[in-house]
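Re: that backbone. Tokens:
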């Protein structure tokens, strides 16, 4: 141990060094003006009495892709940080860019879980492959839980993500994204 009168100082970094487009806050609520008027895809599930209503939306921003989802279900939201992401309550997006300019195959999977987990992968020759990204271009995501019942179980949640184009190996905004 070396004694010193100097105070050790450090900077606490956020989730990402990337910056979403002006006027958009990634907080899991999707209440920014950028979301107003967007079309949503509403999916309804009824499997042996277990129901869910899922609304998803996306938009192509100036600096990245935005994904949003609102989910309400009859079963309780399940989350275990030890389990594989896909085995928790989650939303999966699959897409590719219309111009074909992207890393790897250009086919991507993004998973947003109710428990705050996030994943972005690219289709490789042997299946889905994880890949890294720099802090300056890391995705930003947030989830919100809602509607606890009398037992304290949650049955509704929302998720929002901003993924800079650099994550996908792009240098510019695409003309089309196909989901």
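Recovered sequence:
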């Amino acid at each position: 141990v070396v004694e010193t009168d100097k105070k050790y100082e450090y900077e606490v970094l956020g989730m990402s060094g990337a910056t979403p487009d002006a006027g958009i806050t990634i907080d899991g609520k999707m209440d920014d003006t950028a979301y107003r008027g967007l079309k949503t895809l509403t999916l309804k599930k009824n499997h042996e009495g277990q129901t869910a209503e899922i609304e998803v939306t996306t938009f192509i921003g100036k600096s990245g892709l935005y994904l949003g989802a609102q989910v309400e279900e009859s079963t309780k939201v399940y989350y275990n940080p030890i389990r594989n992401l896909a085995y928790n309550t989650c939303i999966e997006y699959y897409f590719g860019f219309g111009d074909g300019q992207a890393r790897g195959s250009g086919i991507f999977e993004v998973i947003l879980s109710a428990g705050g987990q996030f994943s972005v992968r690219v289709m490789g020759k042997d299946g889905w492959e994880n890949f890294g990204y720099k802090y300056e271009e890391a995705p930003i995501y947030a989830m919100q839980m809602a509607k606890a019942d009398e037992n304290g179980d949650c049955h509704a949640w929302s998720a929002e993500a901003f993924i800079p184009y650099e994550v996908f190996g792009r240098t510019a905004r695409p003309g089309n994204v196909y989901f």
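Strands lie at 41-47, 50-60, 64-73, 90-97, 107-113, 118-124, 127-130, 140-148, 154-164, 177-178. The chain has no helices and ten strands.
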